[in-house]
Amino acid sequence: MKAWLDGDVLQSPHEPAIGVLDHGLVVGDGVFETVAVEQGEPFALTRHLDRLVRSAEGLGIGTPDVALLRSGVAETMAGQELEFGRVRITVTSGVGPLGSPRGSSDLTHVVVTEPCERPPAVAGIVTVPWPRNERGALAGLKTTSYAENAKMIEVARAAGASEAVMPNTQGHLCEGTGSNIMYVLDGRLVTPTLASGCLAGITRALALEWLSEEMDVEEVDAPIEVLQEASEVILVGTTRNLQAIARVDDRVLDAPGPITRQAQEIWARRQAENPDP
């Protein structure tokens, strides 16, 4: 693992580096991206950096220095043999007061890169009752305000699942704590619309683009109970890619199903063509 802060590689990722008044620490005032590393190459880095900028500007903290962050990615990857790994890019609003109002300091830019294990090919999910607010101030932004997600994923892990999936305030299926979701209903591959309040996932966007060229894929909002009717369920995310789901709450599915396998084959083929699509 290597860590970098505002242009400098740290001697150790455990080295004290960010002050106690950084607003990212004080109130979670920041944005982030997680980028998968495949065979030593960050995947879809440009798309992730573009979304980081959108999130930061949407949050109102300003525009991150993308060129500086690219150098941080390169410097933290250098010297690491990364067959598979992840890059965590974080930008906060910088030093601020002990309260919600922001200060006037420069943004804080952080990059950490580490090897990691691939998620299992098949996993389980649980649905949780706490809704994502599709009309909230942070809707559609990838911010560091993740305590709600942390609580949900711990509930999932306690139930022997790898992800928690939530509704929105209308009771419609929305997303996982760190993933988008797709499911198969009547032979069609379906995913919630962005109007549901789900994050505009990078993997989600690429999957919609690539799969729709060869499969019937739809964006539809439906009650979260649709997962109890679906013949197949897929989690979609940066390190998961397209992960087959074998259990939804107490319901067991045959996974991966035929449509999931077809989607995974298309994804693997297209992903191998270009590391920065």
Q: What topology emerges from the helices and strands here?
A:
Elements: E1 2-5, E2 8-9, H1 23-27, E3 30-38, E4 41-42, H2 45-59, H3 66-77, E5 84-92, E6 108-115, E7 122-127, H4 147-158, E8 163-167, E9 173-176, E10 180-185, E11 188-191, H5 202-211, E12 217-219, E13 232-237, E14 241-248, E15 251-252, H6 258-273
Parallel strand pairs: 7-8, 7-14, 11-12
Antiparallel strand pairs: 1-2, 1-6, 3-4, 3-5, 5-6, 8-9, 10-11, 10-13, 13-14, 14-15
Family: Belongs to the class-IV pyridoxal-phosphate-dependent aminotransferase family.
Protein name: Aminodeoxychorismate lyase
Keywords: Lyase
Element-level helix/strand string = EEHEEHHEEEHEEEEHEEEEH
Secondary-structure arrangement, i.e. CATH architecture of the largest domain: Alpha-Beta Barrel
CATH domain fold name of the largest domain: D-amino Acid Aminotransferase, Chain A, domain 2
Low-confidence spans = none
Q: How would you describe what is shown here?
A:
The chain contains six helices and 15 strands. The chain is an alpha+beta fold. It folds into two domains: 114 residues, 2-Layer Sandwich (D-amino Acid Aminotransferase, Chain A, domain 1); 152 residues, D-amino Acid Aminotransferase, Chain A, domain 2 (Alpha-Beta Barrel). The model has no long low-confidence stretch (mean pLDDT 97). One of its GO terms (molecular function) is lyase activity. It holds the Pfam family Aminotran_4.
